[in-house]
Amino acid sequence: MKKYNLAFLLAIMALITSPQLLAQKKMKSPPAQAKGQIGAATVVIDYHQPSANGRTIMGDLVPYDQVWRTGANNATTFEVDKDVKIEGQALPKGKYALFTIPGKDEWTIIFNKNPNQWGAYNYDNGEDALRVKVKPVKTDKFVETFIINPEQDGVTMSWENTKVKFKVTD
Length: 170
What we know:
It comes from Fulvivirga marina. With 170 residues, the protein is mostly beta strands. The protein has one domain. It has 2 helices and 10 strands, in the order H-H-E-E-E-E-E-E-E-E-E-E. The protein has a 6-stranded antiparallel β-sheet with strand order 1-2-3-6-7-8, with no helix packed on it. Strand 6 (94-101) and strand 7 (107-112) form a beta hairpin. It is globular and about 55 Å long. The termini are far apart. Mean pLDDT is 89; it is low at 9-24.
């Protein structure tokens, strides 16, 4: 009887420790990377893409006038290989956490010196390298999944019915 109990116990342990059962669950907000050339600088933005899923986003899920991680999960990172200007203000080459403070009529774009953060829970404005203000605009169509795009002269962020763009020049 004891041999059967041991065999049963070993079989259960094998099932529990099998790779299929330990495989990570698919993330609700998958990772994404936006990479592009803006002037002579290469910009790489790593972020996670939340989806609206029928929710009201701006002003609700993403509250106005509060620091937002600008995506989901880890803080979004913004890396540039050359010194650039963001909205005319100098930003040295390097890797930054990209936070925002969304507002109805104005957004604050924040480049924070600590790129290794989970969300905005430990955000410290004393670590900000640069803050700039931009105006949001209404999108032409509904954007289900948050997306960041480097463009020829800047970076756009779009979700739900809102799009913001900050200019990047070298």
